[in-house]
Amino acid sequence: xxxxxxxxxxxxxxxxxxxxxxxxxxxxxxxxxxxxxxxxxxxxxxxxxxxxxxxxxxxxxxxxxxxxxxxxxxxxxxxxxxxxxxxxxxxxxxxxxxxxxxxxxxxxxxxxxxxxxxxxx
Length: 121
Fold this sequence. Notes:
- The chain is mainly alpha-helical.
- The chain contains 5 helices and no strands.
- Helix 1 runs antiparallel to helix 5 and helix 4 packs antiparallel against helix 5 (95-118).
- The longest helix is centred in the middle third of the chain and has 29 residues, at 60-88.
C-alpha cells in the first residue's frame, strides 16, 4: 500500500462524498447553506481524515487518532443524512445511501482494529 488512495475505506469515502455533494445540490435553496453545507463538510471530512492519518502512519497512535476522526465524521454524516431523508425524501428515503455509510463505518472500525493490532511501520 503506497498511498491512502489504495485504501478501500478512502475510495468508498471519496465516492460517497461525491454522491452526497451531488445530492445536496438538489435540496431547496434554503437548505444549500444549512443542512447541505453541513453534510458536505462532514462527508468530505471522512476521506480527508483518512488521507491525513495515512500521512502520519509512521506514528501508529496518530494514524488511529485520525481514523477515529474519520469514523466520527461518518457517524455525523449518517445523522445528517437521516435528517435530510426524513425532511426532504419522505416518499423516497435515502436508504441505500444510509446503508452504504453504515458499511463504511463498519469498515473504518475494522481498519482501526487492524491498525491497532497488526500495523507494521
